[in-house]
Design goal:
Blueprint: H1 7-11, H2 27-37, E1 49-54, H3 57-75, H4 87-101, E2 107-114, H5 134-150, E3 154-155, H6 165-171, E4 178-187
Antiparallel strand pairs: 1-2, 2-4, 3-4
Helix pairs in contact: 2-5
The structure holds flavin mononucleotide.
Flavin mononucleotide binds near residues 16, 98, 157, 158 and 196.
């Protein structure tokens, strides 16, 4: 597999890779990817991210069971016809595969963000814990996804942990000042990368006034 494909090829090739092999991922490679993540910009260079990596079978099993239950609670016990080749059906099959095999994947990366009130919320209105600094953590997450692709690892951004976040932070002893932003299963892919299907920028870009092409 080609290492470090060129940037414009790479960005159009980073699909959500939901079918992963159980083969282990070397720590050195993981840190190469995470160090790509932490090159991301953040407000005042605050670097509000932290990573929790689940590798132990019991921990992955704990997470996978709740993830699967969360998918079922959100989407029901859905099935997809084998002969349905639509994009929706292919994504549905991949989601099911991921939910059924998550515990076998070598790494479950939990990306946390330091809690921080957005400027637009006045101090007097700040009740309860602040949300994690999503805006600052997502560029880091995207770098991680690109970094995985660059070294031949598959990864998929997931957010279903939100359904069981309270349990998650308690079980893995994530401190109160952090919130969980995304969970990314990482491993060597079963299938091939990209290409992604996206609307061209020309269709979503206006000049000078909204609607002006
Ligand atoms: C904010 C956000 C939340 C997402 N949540 C999930 C998720 O919970 N589970 C999942 O499998 N994929 C999730 N994804 C991945 C998207 O479903 C995926 O990127 C999109 O459908 C396009 O598919 P592609 O990247 O394979 O082209 C999420 C992506 C984003 C940006």
């Amino acid at each position: 597999m080609e290492d470090n494909p060129r940037f414009f090829d790479l960005v159009s090739d980073v699909r959500a890779m939901r079918r992963l092999r159980p083969d282990p991922v070397a720590d050195k490679l993981l840190f190469k990817v995470l160090n790509a993540g932490v090159q991301a910009p953040s407000g005042m260079n605050s670097q509000p991210w932290s990573f929790l990596v689940l590798r132990q079978p019991d921990d992955k099993q704990w997470f996978a069971a709740r993830y699967k239950a969360a998918i079922e609670s959100r989407f029901g016990n859905f099935k997809v016809d084998d002969d349905d080749t639509s994009a929706m059906a292919r994504q549905g099959r991949a989601l099911l595969y991921q939910a059924n095999h998550m515990q076998e994947y070598p790494l479950l990366l939990i990306v946390c963000g330091l809690r921080d009130w957005p400027f637009k919320v006045p101090e007097a209105e700040r009740v309860g814990p602040a949300p994690p600094n999503y805006g600052a953590v997502y560029p880091c997450v995207q770098n991680i996804l690109l970094g995985c692709r660059a070294v031949g690892l598959g990864a998929a951004l997931t957010t279903m942990h939100q359904v069981f976040e309270d349990e998650l932070v308690e079980h893995f002893e994530i401190p109160d000042e952090y919130g969980v932003v995304v969970t990314i299963p990482i491993g060597y892919p079963v299938g091939r990368f990209g290409p992604v299907q996206r609307r061209p920028a020309q269709e979503v870009t206006w000049f000078d006034r909204w609607g002006n092409t």
